[in-house]
Amino acid sequence: MAARGLLGAVLKVGDCAGLVVETEAYLGVSDRAAHAFGGRRTKTNEALYGPAGTVYVYQMRQYCLLNVVTQPATIPQCVLIRAVEPIAGVAAMAMRRGRSGPAMTSGPGKLCQAFGITLADNNRAVNQGRVQLIWPGRTPALIRATPRIGVPNKGTATTAALRFFVAGNANVSDMKKRAIDPNGGWQ
DNA sequence: GGATGGATCAGCT
DNA sequence: GCTGATCCATCCT
């Protein structure tokens, strides 16, 4: 699954970069939690119907969320990037976030603020705009799966284990202190 | 450590 | 009007 394949990839925006450590899969028309559920297509989610590698930025309240389309055009599936481990441009990210440490990029809204990702980056091809994904990055020692976050009361969409993260990485959202691996969860 | 409520806003109904 | 793929401060145990 594409959501697992993104773990360990390098996300690069301008001079800032980080390793993807947490993702969620959104399975298109059959997924009640997806914006394209039932084939819904509006100006806002138009990017979902682009080719694989299209950036889909969704704004929620005062934050933006970063997605990457994973299937050919007209098949609206995507992966939400929920958290990264900062590896470059840390000072710039800390300034934009007003915070440092794990709280800087350990959530979908947080990492977009840290990298300066906005709706201006929506509906553009990865590696042809400011947002880039680069392989190889690092290899997770262990990938864990749980239900997605913020998807209540939607039957199987709520219970399905479609959230994936690098086990033990300190930048994963809601990571318990006891569960942190000193090696960052990498091989 | 866990639960709660407010901030805040574009887009859809 | 209403509704979120959120975040943070501030309670409480």
The largest sheet is: 9 strands, antiparallel
**What proportion of the residues is helical, as a percent range?**
10-25%
CATH topology, which one? 3-methyladenine DNA Glycosylase, Chain A
- What's the total helix number? 4
Question: How many separate domains make up the residues?
Answer: 1
Distance, first to last CA: 20 Å
Under CATH, the homologous superfamily reads Methylpurine-DNA glycosylase (MPG)
Give a short summary of the structure.
It comes from Lacticaseibacillus camelliae DSM 22697 = JCM 13995. The protein has 187 residues and is an alpha+beta fold.
Based on the model shown, name its key terms.
187 residues, 3-methyladenine DNA Glycosylase, Chain A, 4 helices, DNA-binding, nine-stranded antiparallel β-sheet, alpha+beta
Please explain how this structure is put together:
The protein is α+β, with helices and mostly antiparallel strands and 187 residues long. It has a single domain (2-178), classed as Methylpurine-DNA glycosylase (MPG) (3-methyladenine DNA Glycosylase, Chain A). Helices cover 13% and strands 29% of the residues. It has four helices and nine strands; from the N terminus they run αβββββααβββαβ. Strands 1, 2, 3, 4, 5, 6, 7, 8 and 9 form a nine-stranded antiparallel beta sheet that branches. A hairpin with a 2-residue loop joins strand 3 (54-60) and strand 4. Helix 2 packs across helix 3 (108-115). It binds a DNA duplex (13 and 13 nucleotides) through strand 3, strand 4 and helix 3. InterPro entries: Formyl_transferase-like_C_sf (IPR011034), MPG (IPR003180), MPG_sf (IPR036995). It comes from Lacticaseibacillus camelliae DSM 22697 = JCM 13995. This is Putative 3-methyladenine DNA glycosylase. It holds the Pfam family Pur_DNA_glyco. Keywords: DNA damage, DNA repair, Hydrolase.
